[in-house]
Amino acid sequence: MPEKSSYALDGIDRLIHEKARLSILSSLAAHPAGLVFTDLKDLCRLTDGNLSRHLTILQEARLISIHKSFQNNRPQTIARLSPLGQKRFTEYLTELEQIVSSALKSKRHPAPTPVRPKPA
Amino acid sequence: MPEKSSYALDGIDRLIHEKARLSILSSLAAHPAGLVFTDLKDLCRLTDGNLSRHLTILQEARLISIHKSFQNNRPQTIARLSPLGQKRFTEYLTELEQIVSSALKSKRHPAPTPVRPKPA
Q1: Which CATH fold topology does B14-107 show?
Q2: Which residue of A lies nearest to B87 if distances are taken between CA atoms?
Q3: A36/B99 CB distance under 8 A
Q4: Domain coordinates of chain B in residue numbers?
Q5: Is the pTM value of this prediction over 0.80?
Q6: Within the 55-114 window of chain A, which residues sit less than 8 Å (CB to CB) from chain B?
Q7: Degrees to nearest 5, angle at CA A47 with A41 and A50
Q8: Which fold has domain A14-106?
Q9: Per-residue pLDDT of chain A in tens (120 residues, 90 and over written 9)
Q10: What is the ipTM of this complex?
């Protein structure tokens, strides 16, 4: 093995990394008071079904909370990032930042080609 | 809709975003001369089957090239990032950089809660 691996991306949480969920979490992180379902759907450009499915996954992981209420007699669903969600999303962003910076760095200073030992 | 959406992450290419493939492409970007299958497997901490599967996907998308040769009478598979792969990976990193920087910025300066018009 050429060197100790930082390429395995162990810190990248698949739950957050999935594109639609990353989009939802980015939107919610920018709107700490929460977002109404239809606004979130527009922001993330997801279908009703897709948004619902990913909100359920995020809620089950306790990264977001879902509040149901009524406004002008219409049911309203509001999603908010939970404290755990904020923590995990920030950790994810930090990992992502490191991946980008080391990838850009290795573009400028490529690693040497690994030398494979000759079989005996 | 509260504001024009940058949350939909349109620039994020799912082909590259998938965690195992991101790991493979990061490894190859850091080793421009290419990597032998077993080294790549160790670096990315993937199983043989998983690595093969993702290499095929990346090769079909022309992001990498696969070279088969013999070393000491043993078959050797070497993967290399193609020029297209380099271009697309750099574009992906630029997108990722923007997501991280705007997410960290919006943590400091949250967007206002959208005001929904009352139904007539």
Answers
A1: Arc Repressor Mutant, subunit A (1.10.10)
A2: A107
A3: no
A4: 14-107
A5: yes
A6: 71-72, 74, 89-90, 93, 96-97, 99-100, 102-104, 106-107, 110-111, 113-114
A7: 100
A8: Arc Repressor Mutant, subunit A (1.10.10)
A9: 444 567 889 889 999 999 999 999 999 999 999 999 999 999 999 999 999 999 999 999 999 999 998 888 899 999 999 999 999 999 999 999 988 888 888 777 777 766 565 555
A10: 0.81
